[in-house]
Structure formats: structure tokens, C-alpha cells
Amino acid sequence: MDVEKVLCMVGGSSETSYAANSTIPRKALLRIRPMLKEAVTEIYRNLRLEKMTVADLGCSSGPNTLLLLSEVIRIISNQCLKTGQQPPEMQFFLNDLCNNDFNNIFQSLDRLEESLRAEKVTISVPYFVAGLPGSFYGRLFPRQSVQFFHSTFCLQWISQVPQDIGDKRNGKPLNKGNIYIGKTSPPLVGKLYQEQFRSDFSNFLKLRCDELVPCGQMVLSFLGRNKNDILDGEWSIIWGLLAKSLDSMVQEGLVEEENLDTFNLPFYTPSAEEVEAIITLQGLFDIIRFQPFESNLDPFHDLDDDVVHDNVQRGANCSKVIRSVIESMIASHFGSTIVDDLFSRFATHVAKHLLTEKLNFPVLALSLKKKE
Ligand SMILES: C[S@@+](CC[C@H](N)C(=O)[O-])C[C@H]1O[C@@H](n2cnc3c(N)ncnc32)[C@H](O)[C@@H]1O
Predict the structure, then answer these.
(1) In this structure, are residues 28 and 72 in contact, taking their beta carbons and an 8 Å threshold?
(2) Which superkingdom is the protein from (predicted)?
(3) Atom 23, ligand 1: residue with shortest CA distance
(4) Which domains, and CATH codes, for the chain?
């Protein structure tokens, strides 16, 4: 699978689009506001800039992209009000893979002005917005040219499915019956995914370190894993339900078994300890904050609510979220004709699962500062 070509959230603003189904990362963005405020304020105060470059890596398309911009502009505006200084000119780069719906973002930019007016941002901050296509696993900027990087819900997407996952053992595919690390995956599958993440994340840190000015900062949040058992993580359960839905289609002759056997996700959710170890070993960044928090696959469900309300509706909610994220990958591998049926089956499996268990997962949120 060529991840850069195939990974793409559903564009536009229809019911199945990512824009209409991105409430979970939005909640995460609101949750990391204090971290964002701390990082941007420190950059503003310490670097005393006339111009400031900010990049959102993996911006996708939808309301969250603009939320980050309005947050940063508001923070800078408030700082200027306090200090009486002229605001810096802000350059925002919105980065994602080439198939991202950049047009949708550009067409909605006037909403940014509206939201700044609605929030009564007092000091007007000059800003410029540019789209930047390309993988964040490669260089995106000239050396030492960026003050602040942000990325929400992206780094769990690795650059490729680990190469050896497609191998056969005794004539059987190594990860038979799974599309990610699952309870029945051999330990080697977990190790291969873990190693791919380690290599990608180390590379990401090195590249961003090259691009950041000294003392530049990053606020990153991405999906993680609470459990120590790599074969039994929260996302192993979620993707396990999708694998079950695909398998039911194989049983009914709607999907080729061979197609299912060759489908594995370019995805990995690390534990907080794994992430911390990689950052520490590399030694390029100081960890300023590391604050994991819980999230839930149903955007309309309250985390603390233990009562199972309408599991069927909740199954449908969760299915819409997952569909908006991986429809393009499914369609590219299995063909677009299976998509409606697959996500309807998935909704049913999720609904059943929710009768006895939750679908919560941790989000790893951290702020990092480039060492001097
Ligand atoms: C779940 S979306 C998150 C979007 C947005 N940040 C938000 O909070 O709603 C993940 C995004 O990361 C992008 N992405 C994944 N891997 C990437 C890579 N290597 N380079 C750039 N973008 C990537 C995907 O295309 C997708 O738009």
C-alpha cells in the first residue's frame, strides 16, 4: 500500500465527510488549549518576533483546521494587548498529504474572519495562510524557519505497513484474520509495528528539529495505548471489530479472502512510555508537558456516563467516524462497492460490543521544546 497516495480523509462537507465527523479531534484540541497557550505565549515572549511561522501538520479539511488558527491568533492578540507591542505578522502553513481536500479549507477561510470577529479579538493580527502538500515524514521547510508546529490525531498513521507483515508462515499470512495487531497476531506482528513507529517517530523528531528555530516548540496529540500488552490495545479492539465485519463479507463471498489477507493498516498506537523513551533517547527536545487523557469513539457520548443508552445509535455514530477516516483506504483495496455494506456491519458489531464494554482510548498530548 502506498500510504501517501491512499490515506485521505473523506473530503467535502457531506454527511460522510471528515469535516462532518471530526468532533473527537475537536474535543481533543479544546482539551489541549492550555498547552497551546503556554507554548505560543512563551515563543512570543522569548523570541520577540516581527514575523512568526506556524505549521499545522496533518490539518485535513474541516472546522478543526480553522480552530487552531483562531486559537493561535487569539493568544498572540491577547499577548500584544498585555505588552503593548505590535503584533508579529503570522504565516500559517496547512500541511497534509497531496490528496487532502485543500480546496475545502481555502473556501472556508472567510469563516476564520467571522470567528475572530465573534470572539472579539481586540488587536488585529496580520496573517497569511498557505497550503503545504507533502508527507511530514519528509522535510517540509528550510532549516530553522519555523517557530511552532502543531499536529492533532496524525502521528498514529505510520509511513508504511511494516514490510514483513505480508510474509507467509507455513503457507498462512503472518497476520491472518487481523487488519492490525490483534489478540491472535503472533508477537512478531506487534514488534514489527512497534519498530516501524519507532523509526517513523524518530525521523519525524529529527526533521522537525532541523526545521525549528532554536527554542521553537511543538504541541502534538495522537492516539495511544494504555495497556502494556501490545496485542490487546484499545485500537486492537476497534480494528478487530472492523476485521470481523470484513470477515463476515468473506464468508458470504462478497470479499475475496486473499484481499482480506493482504490488508493491514498503516497505523500504530504507542504507549506513553514508548513515546517518552524515543524522545529521551534522541535527545533533541525537552518534554515540557506530557498529559495523556481519555477519549471515546462515540463523539456524542459522555466519557463518565456508565449507562448504555442507545447502543444501536452509538454504533452508527462510531461507524460514521471510522468511515470518514478510512473509506479511501478501504475503497482502494477492496473496491468502493463494499463500503456501505461494510460500515453498516461494523455499526452492528460496535453496537453489540457497547452492550458490555466501552470503546475508550487514550490520547497522548505533549509539548516539546527544541534544545538550545
Ligand atoms: C484524523 S486526521 C486529523 C486532522 C486534523 N488534524 C484534526 O485534528 O481534525 C489525520 C490527518 O493526518 C494526515 N496524515 C497522515 N499521515 C500524514 C503524513 N505522513 N503527512 C502529512 N499528513 C498526514 C491525514 O491525511 C489526515 O488528514
Answers:
(1) no
(2) Eukaryota
(3) 58
(4) 3-370 (3.40.50.150)
> Nearest residue CA, atom 19 of ligand 1?
135
- What is the C-alpha separation between 263 and 329, in angstroms, rounded? 10
In DSSP terms, 157 is beta-bridged to 267
CA-CA distance, 49 to 53, in Å (whole number)?
10
CB atoms within 10 A of CB 124: 11
Q: Are 92 and 128 in contact (CB under 8 A)?
A: yes
Residue 101 pLDDT more than 70?
Answer: yes
The CA 250 to ligand 1 mean position distance, Å, reads 30
Alpha-carbon span 8 to 266, nearest angstrom: 12
CA nearest ligand 1 atom 12, residue:
58
Protein residue closest via CA to atom 14 of ligand 1: 58
Pocket test for ligand 1, best of 2, 36, 56, 157 (most atoms within 8 A of CB): 157
Contact (Cβ atoms closer than 8 angstroms) between residue 104 and residue 60: no
**Cα 113 to ligand 1 centre (Å):** 24
SS3 annotation, 296-361: ECCCCCCCCCCCCCCHHHHHHHHHHHHHHHHHHHHHHHHCHHHHHHHHHHHHHHHHHHHCCCCCEE
When pLDDT is averaged across residues 302-327 and rounded to a whole number, the result is 79
Average pLDDT on 95-122 reads: 86
Q: How many CB atoms lie within 10 A of CB 193?
A: 26
Amino acid found at 12 = G
Average pLDDT rounded to a whole number, residues 37-59? 92
Least confident among 15-24, 126-135, 261-270: 15-24
Phi, psi torsion values for 243, nearest 5 degrees: -60, -40
To test the ligand 1 pocket, which listed residue (154, 220, 332) has its Cβ within 8 A of the most ligand atoms?
Answer: 154
Task: Give the per-residue pLDDT at 313.
Answer: 83
User: Which residues approach ligand 1 with their CB closer than 6 A?
Assistant: 7-9, 22, 25, 58-60, 64, 95-97, 100, 135-137, 152-154, 157, 325
Best substitution site from 18, 60, 65, 152 to test ligand 1's pocket, by max atoms within 8 Å of Cβ? 60
Q: For residues 300-313, give the mean pLDDT.
A: 68
Q: Which residue has the cell 461494523?
A: 346
